[in-house]
Specification:
It contains three helices and seven strands, in the order βαβαβββββα. The protein is an alpha+beta fold.
């Protein structure tokens, strides 16, 4: 059974901002002659890695709302410079927008059951269809999302 992860995307303004940062990381890796892969490094290795690798994604919480996801293609050990154990979640570069769903702040990552994950947004959404953070917060306060 597929299992997902959910993670706050701290310091990110919107999905386009996340896409720009990830594109820069891929470009930097190519320039350095390193395999261009997107990795999210975390201290804890998911114990349910097999379920995550069975079609799971990482859902990004941006400005208080789940807004996008990326498929997790591998989970592997990662060597940190400080020699502390770590894990690399290797991500598909394709960011998929999801329907907005409010989500409270938390630390680290959490498991997200497939049944609880928001559906993908309808295809064809343009960059201008991003709901501004202030409007999304107001809609949340009104109980509309």
């Amino acid at each position: 059974m597929t299992l997902h992860l959910i993670k706050l995307s701290v310091g990110i303004d919107d999905v386009e901002h996340l896409a720009r940062i990830q594109a820069k990381r891929l470009a930097d890796a190519r320039r350095q002659g390193v395999a261009p892969e997107l990795r999210h490094v975390t201290r804890n290795t998911p114990r349910q890695a097999d379920a995550i690798l069975d079609g799971g994604s990482i859902y990004w919480v941006i400005k208080g709302f789940i807004r996008a996801r990326q498929r997790i293609v591998a989970i592997r050990p990662f060597d940190r410079r400080d020699d502390r154990p770590a894990c690399a979640l290797v991500l598909d570069p394709k960011l998929v927008r999801t329907e907005l769903r409010s989500f409270r702040p938390f630390q680290g990552w959490r498991y997200l059951a497939a049944a609880s994950a928001p559906p993908d947004a309808p295809t064809g959404r343009s960059a201008t269809s991003e709901v501004p953070a202030a409007m999304a917060e107001e809609l949340k306060n009104l109980g509309l999302i």
